[in-house]
Structures are given as C-alpha cells and as structure tokens.
Fold this sequence. Notes:
The chain has 140 residues and is α+β, with helices and mostly antiparallel strands. Helix content is 30%, strand content 45%. It has a five-stranded mixed beta barrel with strand order 1-2-4-5-6.
Amino acid sequence: MSVPMTVQVVTPAGVVYDHHANFVLAKTTGGEIGILAHHIPLIAPLTIDEIKVRRIDSDTHVDWIAVNGGVLEVRNNFVTIVADSAERERDIDVSRAERAKRRAEREIEEAKATENVDQLRRAEVALHRAINRINVSKHL
C-alpha cells in the first residue's frame, strides 16, 4: 500500500475537505495533473473544474469537489487547494446551480445584444461555474 497524502481544500469560509488519499487529479491552467505520494513540490493555478480524490480506504472510494479556480500546492505528501469557493458533490444544491446556469445564459444573451464585453465575460464565468457544479453533483 502506498503512503497516503493529506488533501485539504480551503476557502475563505474554512476547510471544505480534509482526508487522506492515494491519488488526486486536478486541472491546472497548464492542463490536467495527477498527484501521487512523494510528488515533487509544486504550486499551480487551477481552472474552474472538478477535483478527483481517490481515498485510501478503497480504490473505488472517490470524492469529487467542484472548485472555482484557485491554487494547488503539493509539499511533503500534503496537497492543499486554496479556492474562492469549493463544494463537495454531496453538498451541491443542484436546483440552485440550475437557476444560476439559466441566469448566466440570460445574461450572456443580454450582454451580446448590448455588446457589453465586461458583462459577457462575467456571465461566461458564472455559466462555467454553474455547469461545473452541476457536473460534479452527477458523480453521486
């Protein structure tokens, strides 16, 4: 059995996730990265995407966390993810995420109609976040 890593996801609201794992998969701005025990020290910016954590108790026990960007740090078998917001799959309010998706789609249409580039960019990010939360919730 491999040496476990500690994985923590932290937001301004506090610790969202704290468990031991054998494997972590995350999407950085440079692409996907898989992390195993004894990974070299690393700091990488994250995109809006899901984090996959394979827990130590079973190869089939996988946790999913929706992360809205942030920073991943790996050091001494400790993986820390600092994000503005993050939610575990079991904590996602799907109806709220669906409403946020519809609202963002309306804002995108409005921004295109008025040629408001700033509003369009914000709405596209909001849409990406909502879709990410919906997708992560489906892992349950």
